[in-house]
Amino acid sequence: SQQGEEDPQALSIQEGENATMNCSYKTSINNLQWYRQNSGRGLVHLILIRSNEREKHSGRLRVTLDTSKKSSSLLITASRAADTASYFCATGAYNNNDMRFGAGTRLTVKP
Amino acid sequence: ETGVTQSPTHLIKTRGQQVTLRCSSQSGHNTVSWYQQALGQGPQFIFQYYREEENGRGNFPPRFSGLQFPNYSSELNVNALELDDSALYLCASSPRGANIQYFGAGTRLSVL
Question: Concatenated DSSP letters for A13-32?
Fold first, then answer.
């Protein structure tokens, strides 16, 4: 069963704009990760935020985590056409055997 | 490139048949996880292997089984294929205890 729920399901923006995607989850987590997937291929890890962290940055990516609301957001700044992909949040439990993914946000960046 | 390779890339089977998918993990990674991703959905955890033992399983029936070999490569076997088994099957490897997983490009299985 899915753990995370991404919002929106689809997002279309112009190059240069910022893209924000949200993720909500249901159970206690050890960490939350964001992955990217191009056209039904393998997933690529983008960023991990631990349950005791509130914000993390990596290049043009900014992730926030609010454990009281069981939610996270991924911000991509100054988007590029090459950012077009599906983005998934995934939550890891403390034993990390079972990583749960949401249904993803499909981002389209128009040149 | 993650160093995780899956074979074959595409496969067509008929209902009732059996299939074996293969995964070579990234060098130094002793943990392998398998996921099923239906069209338009996120990956769903099937199971994980560590040192040749199953180390966690998702909500999949027993006809989904796996193996891990001493070199940490892995197989996913699905018996009595059903139409709903049509999906992208993803393998991911990681060092033991690491949170980040490294995914292969997947095997696209079509069941007719």
Answer: EETTS-EEEEEE--S--SEE
Contacting residues of A for B58, CB less than 8 Å apart: 98
Residue to mutate among B55, B99, B102, B109, with most A CBs inside 10 A, is B99
Interface membership of A10 toward B (CB under 8 Å): no
The string of pLDDT tens digits covering residues B6-56 is 999 999 999 999 999 999 998 889 999 999 999 989 999 999 999 899 988
Residue B108 burial (CB < 10 Å; 0-12/13-18/19+)? middle
Distance CA B34, CA B44 (A): 8
Contact A1 B59 (CB under 8 A): yes
pLDDT at A1: 47
| Backbone phi and psi for residue A2, each to the nearest 5 degrees, phi listed first | -75, 145
Residue B45 contacts A, CB cutoff 8 Å = yes
Burial of B37-46, coded b for 16+ CB within 10 Å and e otherwise, reads beeebbbbbb
Q: What digits encode the pLDDT tens for the residues A44-72?
A: 999 999 999 999 999 999 999 999 999 99
Backbone angles phi, psi at A30, to 5 degrees: -95, -35
pLDDT surpassing 70 at residue B60: yes
Which residue in chain A has the smallest CA separation from B32? A97
Residue type for B11, please? L
Percentage of chain A beyond pLDDT 70 is: 92
